[in-house]
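Aim 2, interim progress. The first record below pairs a target sequence with its structure tokens.
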Amino acid sequence: LASVFAQTYQNWECIVIDDGSIHKASEVLKNFSDPRFRYIELQKNVGRGGVRQRGLEEAKGKYLCMVDSDDWITSNKLEPQVKLLEQRPDLALVSCSMAIVGSNHELLGVRHFTEAKDLEVRGALVGVCALPIPHAPSMIRMVVAKCFSYDRSLRIAEDFDFLLKILLKYPFGITRDVGYCYTEVTTLNWWKVIKSNFATIRVLRKYSVTYPVSSIVQSFKTLG
């Protein structure tokens, strides 16, 4: 929340959703006397698909970003992405690079998704595949995001499912700017990888009719 509060771009609303946690986010929000933070407390845990969909339904802005509770964004993440989407109305979203951080917030590496020095524009995907960009650092045009929904039944890989729907229909942009800090190392384990792979295959099965070849190929790739 502090990383959102520190943004150089000021015209934002942050919807904080407490997914039935033991440690109430409302206590954390007491540190921010700012009406741009809006708090929603769910009485029971509905999982990542359900909570992301609730956030999408509540959002009223022109663009959509998400920040998971164990991650944060750089102070200049929003401003350049808003500028690019204003300049390029043909793009459904823009994404950027991610810093990978450890348990003590130390930098372990940077994950880039383009070699271009400036904005790289790509057309819609022609079949299902490993996504060329991640969900986390993306800023999505709200009018596009509202045309789709997060699968409430998915507790993992719901972001892959949602982003794939968009990228199969719309062009998108990528920059090398580092805008998102992802705590992958401390949250990743073999059990999570296995669950993620099976959830991804479940998503790919949705495309067995429209993209029969690529969905089968990508399912085998996911199984490794």
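The second target in this work package is listed in the same format:
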Amino acid sequence: REILTVEPGFKWTELRNSAQSMSLFSSRKLVDLRIHTGKPGVEGAQALQEYCDQLTDDTLTLVTLPRLDKAAQNSKWFTALAEHGVTIAVEDIPRNALPAWIAGRLKRQEQSVDRDTLNFLADRVEGNLLAAWQEIQKLSLLFPPGPLSFEQVKDSVMDVARYDVFKL
């Protein structure tokens, strides 16, 4: 696995070189290209198009981009990526929709909480869906199906392994 992060001064030849150089100990390679701005620039757009034309079965390429506007999605470089691969759009859940998302996950495990508790949970996980899912799973392990009180949720969410040098 090779991770390439596009930042100012990034050399696009690194992408081509990475795909062409294989490991001595494996027959496949993962190239993880991260473009945090979503704009590869003129040189990058050309490099991505050329890269797509020279893909091999031995190299799997993962391109991570932020949410793109319509113009970027219609660009030649993005069209080339979409034609030669699979595009998966993963949208962020806005803060105001997070309590409903948490409530839906709790309902799947036959548990429920009130609106204030949902907001409390949403504040604690700060938009991190993995953390939210882990907290919800923890609630299913700690408590039986049914309604949960604010105190139960608060105590379980706050009761994580934190070490204090003075309590050791």
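The beta strands are 2-5, 29-34, 59-64, 111-112, 146-147. This observation will shape the mutagenesis plan for the next reporting period.
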